[in-house]
Amino acid sequence: MPTATVCSIAFAPLARVVARGLGHLSLPIAIIPHPVGDQNAELISRKGIDIAAECARILTTPAAELDAEFRAAKYPLPPATVEK
Fold it and tell me: Is 30 helix (H, G, I), strand (E, B) or coil?
């Protein structure tokens, strides 16, 4: 069944670890910027349009292509979440 997991970039590494722990080695993760909220309605709208497009791409791409793409995907922690 086609699936797209939507996750903020700050939590993508954790999502990858959990997915792999459950045997989903190539779970498609659609990354959204962190923080998700914003005061600018136009920026929020743009984020929504972008993530909807990425979800549509994930849901309509052949499984073999997604497997190759997401099995190799790296999700490093964003600089703001790494201790200095």
Answer: strand
* Phi, psi (degrees; rounded to nearest 5) at 10: -70, -25
Average pLDDT of the chain?
88
**Which segments of the chain does DSSP mark as H helices, in order?**
12-21, 41-60, 63-71
Higher-confidence position of 9 and 22: 22
| Spatial contact of 5 and 29, defined as CB atoms under 8 Å apart | yes
Residue type for position 33: P
Question: Are the beta carbons of 33 and 74 closer than 8 angstroms?
Answer: no
pTM value is 0.80
Task: Round to whole Å and give the CA distance between 75 and 46.
Answer: 22
